[in-house]
Fold these 2 entries.
Entry 1:
Amino acid sequence: MKYLHSRNRAILREMISTDFKIRYQGSVLGYFWSLLKPLLLFAILYIIFTYIVPIGKDIEHYPVILLLGVVLWSFFSEVTTVGAGSIVASGDLIRKISIPRYLVVLASSFSAFINLLLSLIVVFTFCLFNGLFPHLSWLLLIPIVLELFAFAVGIAFFLATANVKYRDITYIWEVFLQGGFYASAIIFPISLVPADLRIWFFLNPVVQIIQDARYALVPVEGNVTIWQLVEPWFMKLIPFMIIIAVCVAGGVYFKRRSKYFAEDI
């Protein structure tokens, strides 16, 4: 945010605050829903995949591994879903007030980031209850979370732009997210995937991000990072190259079409 003009920073802060307040306005539990949503999903998945289909029964610290995956995926889903509809939802604002259009997408993204920070507090609490205590490797979560944020925002810019003209985009993306949840190794660690299939999983950068985040938070034997799973070395760069390409493409597409938003909405 320090690279934004002072006026734009003030506008962005106000938009983030307004978005965060309006989202839970009229709700009895209010902000607590940002914590309860991933926790409820985690509870359902934990019961199913520990007692009914015992995938995680013999995995060390499985509750932490599962919860972290759910929290990171929920953040990715929220940034992209809300971001996809952000321009259309702010049509009146865009037509009436002259503001940089990208602030609309960033506001919803930073609002989701606040939710992520609150959810990570719960994750760290789970760590303590599971016998995992603060470690230097936890600091690696900072660049990993920023990587996820960049990827999600890049997609949000692309979807928000496309959704102005093609309103079916949000519905298509919701279906895509449902399939993506099971294709992102959230329920199980990637080490359980056969070696010859792992490379296909890493075409999805979210898999790399979640796997590396688990490695940083739960540095135990059997919990490995992308660098230990994929060969040859240049294949390890695929997720990062995809993220850069998505950010550049999303930004360029948004910039080219943003001047037409007011008349297309």
Note: The chain has one domain: 6-264.
Entry 2:
Amino acid sequence: MVIVVTGAIGIGKTTVCRNFVKIAQNQGYACGGILSYKDADESITLEDIESGKKKALASITNLWHGPRTAKYFFNPKAIDFGVQVIDGAISKDILVVDEIGHLELRGEGFAKVIELIRAGKVKNSILVIRKELLLAFSARLDSKLSIIETTIENRNELPQKIGTLLNLRKRT
């Protein structure tokens, strides 16, 4: 199953994913993948869900000679780290990739995860995709998606809703 968590910038999509992972792990499910979040200085940090290891992924200043978008300069070593984390997590019960964005539309960044999902190599996945990019990625994923929009009103209930969609039950 592919679940897409979408919503406006800064609405809490990463927090929804982080809270869902805690619930799933507490129920005995193996989760892997990456979370990305904005820091106070507008830079972006990438975190390995399983190990907690973090890497600076992107900055609004040109610190790295890697890919870039209109706003960010990306760290190639952090992208490689994220791809390795994704590769190591494809056999998990649930793969989380936060977030798929403009780089992936160009076939860069973590675009590999789209092909892994299309090839049926991932059991269950949760992808964070901004609302404005949803249509473009829906066509590329070529599979039935469950789309969950994060809002201020529903973000606290969404981790449980995702668990229900994935039919999670306590494992012993």
Note: Helices lie at 13-26, 76-89, 102-105, 112-118, 134-141, 158-165.
